[in-house]
Amino acid sequence: xxxxxxxxxxxxxxxxxxxxxxxxxxxxxxxxxxxxxxxxxxxxxxxxxxxxxxxxxxxxxxxxxxxxxxxxxxxxxxxxxxxxxxxxxxxxxxxxxxxxxxxxxxxxxxxxxxxxxxxxxxxxxxxxxxxxxxxxxxxxxxxxxxxxxxxxxxxxxxxxxxxxxxxxxxxxxxxxxxxxxxxxxxxxxxxxxxxxxxxxxxxxxxxxxxxxxxxxxxxxxxxxxxxxxxxxxxxxxxxxxxxxxxxxxxxxxxxxxxxxxxxxxxxxxxxxxxxxxxxxxxxxxxxxxxxxxxxxxxxxxxxxxxxxxxxxxxxxxxxxxxxxxxxxxxxxxxxxxxxxxxxxxxxxxxxxxxxxxxxxxxxxxxxxxxxxxxxxxxxxxxxxxxxxxxxxxxxxxxxxxxxxxxxxxxxxxxxxxxxxxxxxxxxxxxxxxxxxxxxxxxxxxxxxxxxxx
Length: 453
Description:
Elements: H1 2-24, E1 26-29, H2 31-41, H3 43-63, E2 69-80, E3 87-88, E4 94-95, E5 106-121, H4 125-192, H5 199-234, E6 240-243, H6 258-268, H7 270-291, E7 296-307, E8 325-335, H8 340-408, H9 414-448
Helix pairs in contact: 2-4, 3-4, 4-5, 4-7, 4-9, 5-9, 6-8, 7-8, 8-9
């Protein structure tokens, strides 16, 4: 007995970690947790965030336009050897040796040229491009927020779709059991010659059973698709997902008025921020294109060094020797790149883009309130539909139960029973669909008002 108890204790100690591991493989999520996971794992959001970094890099590039510029070129080459050189005779004439142009071998040639300059004024070009780049960062941040709203809608659709299809499957299974039980009872009555039933009653029940199983298969497929979508969006691969909600329920009706929602949207929508930032960017680009016709001013140091050891050095400062020399000087200069045929066209393009952004803002100011009103009306209409379909589904279930009880008591025909089953299945299915649609409209209302971003 003592050995048996020890073996039992050992078995339990081995099974406990296994059960804990199995429990750890199931992730329980409510809607908010699923959305948060999706925000952290959705590659589409990460892609938009990377584009924000690109935009920040453009800011650094624009702001760095007025910084030190180093242009250095150095090489090691070959130059021809020279014997003798250019000199003057006693009468001041320049004489060149007869063999001065004969090939006498080669000499290594070391060369270095450099420009170190600072563009202290671009007459507004760099400032305008930097301002446009800063606004572009805001626009790209808005794209991140917009992608988050799309992810939120996708998660909500998968979450509520899973609950609706799961409840539909459960309802179909319940109806299936009741119809199968009725079929078995009718078959027994027909075989024993009891009860007031006919062969047509059996056919009616079997027809209804086929329809129920058809809807069950469809709902089961939708459930599996929604489940796979949830795993994809939340980044859960090996673990199983279990939803915290036990059944599909309508979310609370938003309590703000239409005017309050519209005012909220005009302040909180990412698109409004993007439009404002876009106007700033287009205005800055227009200024930059206007400034392109002006030169840039710079200061710095330029110089060059060249050395060929096998060539004689000229001591005459009036003669420049490209192979042996050294020199540097501070400079202040002007660089002007003006394409007269292109500059005006670029200004015209920038002006057109700026005007188009103004029109986009005008449309947003009227389009966003309409989007809010559209979702607001849909939410309230579907909320009313939910209440009515809930009453209809409850009445349909009572009708089904009562008809089935009357049929078992011999007081009702099978076709009447199937009519009750059909009405209940359709009413409850429509109730689930309406609740699902209502919840999605509430989710969209949160998006169009800027609550989710």
